[in-house]
Amino acid sequence: MSIEARQLRVGYGERDVLNGVDVPLPEGQITAIVGANACGKSTLLRTFARLLKPTAGSVLLDGAEIAHTPTRDVAKRLGFLPQSPVPPEGLTVEDLVHRGRFPHQKLGRRSSAEDKARVDWALNATGVHDLKDRPLDRLSGGQRQRAWIAMALAQDTPILLLDEPTTYLDLAHQLEVLDLLVDLNEQGRTIGIVLHDLNHACRYAHHLVALKRGEVYAAGAPDEIVDEVLVKQVFGLDSRVIPDPVTGTPMCVPIGRTVTRSATAS
What we know:
Blueprint: E1 3-12, E2 15-25, E3 30-35, H1 41-48, E4 56-61, E5 64-65, H2 71-77, E6 78-81, H3 93-98, H4 113-125, H5 141-154, E7 159-163, H6 171-186, E8 190-194, H7 198-204, E9 207-212, E10 215-220, H8 222-225, H9 228-235, E11 239-243, E12 250-254, H10 257-265
Parallel strand pairs: 3-8, 3-9, 6-7, 7-8
Antiparallel strand pairs: 1-2, 1-4, 4-5, 9-10, 11-12
Helix pairs in contact: 4-5
């Protein structure tokens, strides 16, 4: 199952946010989309998910324009977790995760044994099974985020798109989520993920897309494209890029004013 953007241009009002980008998500791989704030990362992912309509260009899902694909067919093939989603009032964790099964159910049909099994698996995989009867509005930010991820997993699609899924999570839970995505990828899923942490992106992604002001600055394997020039051009940050001591992937060490002051003082 493949998805790609071709000459994609997307805007809000009269302002273009994406300026004719070509972005394939390599099939069977994890692609991380990175860049500074307001560079178009979330806009790109939302357009992939058919939540935004391009002003030019197209998104192709398995070679066909996603705009012309029936909504239920899209939902069976593509799962999307937006940034900071807002649930209906009073919904429990289990209710939310069950909603991930809606694309697989016929109108009026009760949940099947397969539906229940997928929901239980998603609850356990994200560590929220013990919270399944709790209303979402009584959870911490991190617990709520994991419940939303469970809903996306329950949808059980070959393509999974996640917009900053580690938001609100402490470091241990960030790594748990990213490790889970690796497991899902190894089962054959194509994953596209927006991440703020460049080091996490380099460690977990096979393919990296760096956006700058609505254009693709660079795309490729992290160890082929991530260097100090990219960090400076894309993030406006002076840094040193060294091998990650655990994985050998590129690791960005920022150079801040505190370091400069310390060097001056010495």
